Structures are given as structure tokens and as C-alpha cells.
Amino acid sequence: MRALVLSDIHANLEALEAVLAAAPPHDVVWNLGDVVGYGANPNEVIDRVRPLGKFVVRGNHDRACSGLEVFDFSQNAKVAILWTESILEDDHREWLRSLAMGPVTPEESAVSCVHGSPRDEDEYLFTLDDAAPSLQAACCPITFFGHTHRQVGFATGEYTETRFGPEYNLSSEPEQFPLQLRSGYRYLLNPGSVGQPRDSDWRAAFAVYDDEQSIFTWHRVPYDVAEAQRRIRDAGLPNALAYRLERGF
Ligand code: ZN
How close is the Cα of 147 to the center of ligand 1, in Å? Predict the structure, then answer.
């Protein structure tokens, strides 16, 4: 079974379309949340995401944009959340509100999926110190997480804990980086962000997990970033939200 693992699409339709076009054949889609917020096409992105499958974990922006919770966001994030709230179709708002809180285990597998961490859906896992308690707390040997918008992995073996990530050579072509998972290890794996990467690489990020071969493959794919930026500016959203896309931060 092969799962397409997506996270942090953030209403970026161009990035999502590029990812779906580039994704290798897969059996299921696991979505780690933050479908909306920041980008200019929340309704169109939800229309595209819903038919991909039921497995979607909620993110903090999904909760904020659907009015479930109020958070202390940065000024630009807040502007985007209020704007998203104002244009969301009713049916889409209800769908966002119905999303599950992680950790959730997809029916067809023995992994778990969260937005932030296994311990707290809003926790950011940047460093090995951040991740260490979650590596122990996770219910399954393999957990997929998002929220930081960075392609990164953490693992623990018998005695050691490590932090690692893909190594790429290109900057504007599609690229992939496979990781052979070892039995007896525990993993936390972030596919990166589809719609607002923050690891200094503007290309849309995603991953594919093959449970028969125990291979997790990180992918990057270029997309029409100029069009995504144009839509953000046309919607009257902060220019900074458009600018950051071309820099990947
Ligand atoms: Zn996010």
C-alpha cells in the first residue's frame, strides 16, 4: 500500500495542483491538516481535497478559520484567517469543523497521523529536544506530523536519537529523496508543506509512504508560484504572504 502524505496546503491551489500532478501512483491520501489559511483559494482547495479521501487531521488554521477556536496568531496570519472566514462557503466551514483531532490511525495501516505532535496537536517539533518526548509517547512506531512546514525526520533506535532530512541538489526541478525505514526504530516524519514551505526551498513539498517496502520518500515539485502570489495580492491579503512563497520561509 502506498500513501500520499500531504500537509499544510494553506489554500494554495497552484501548489496543490502541482503536487497532485506529480505524485506517483498511490492507494490512499493522508492529510495532516492546515488545509486553509494564508493562501487565496480556500474554497477551491477544499473542493479539490475532499474527494481525495476522508483521512484529514485538523490543523490550527482549520480550527481558527472555521471559528472553532481563537488563537494568538501573528498579524498577517490573523488578517488571512479573518479573510478566509469571510469567504468560506457554509458547507466547507462545516467540513473544517468536522475534522478529527490527531493522533489518528488510518484504517489501512499501523501508523499514526497528527498535525503538531503526538502529545499536543499544536506543538511544534523543530529540534531533537522537542521531538524526544514525542518519540516515546507516540502510539505507533511511525508517526507523520506537519505544522512546522519543514521536511524533517526524527528517529530513535536502541540507544540513539537522530534528526535528519532530505538532501537535494536542485532548486527549480522536481526532486525526491527516499528513506529506508528500519525495523525496531521509532520515527516522526514530516512531509513538509504543500502550500507554504518554510525550509528555504520554495518548491511544494509532499511525501509518499510505501508500507510494504518500508520506504518513506520526500518529494519537491516546482509550481506556478507567481500565480499563487498574484491571487494573494488580488485578494487584498498582506504582500508578505505572497513574498514569502518565492523564498520558502
Ligand atoms: Zn500550517
Answer: 5
Ligand 1 centroid, distance to 102 Cα (angstroms): 15
Quote the ligand 1 centre to 193 CA distance (angstroms). 7
From the number of C-beta atoms within 10 Å of its C-beta (0-12, 13-18, 19+), residue 10 rates as buried
Domain count for the chain, please give it: 1
Strand (E) or helix (H) holding 112: strand 112-113
Q: Say how many Å lie between the CA of residue 158 and the centre of ligand 1.
A: 32
8 alpha carbon to ligand 1 midpoint, in Å? Answer: 5
CA distance 41 to 232: 9
Nearest by Cα to 12 from 245, 170, 247, 239: 245
- What's the domain range around 38? 2-247
pLDDT digits (tens, 9 = 90+) for 41-72: 999 999 999 999 999 999 999 999 999 988 88
pTM of the full structure:
0.97
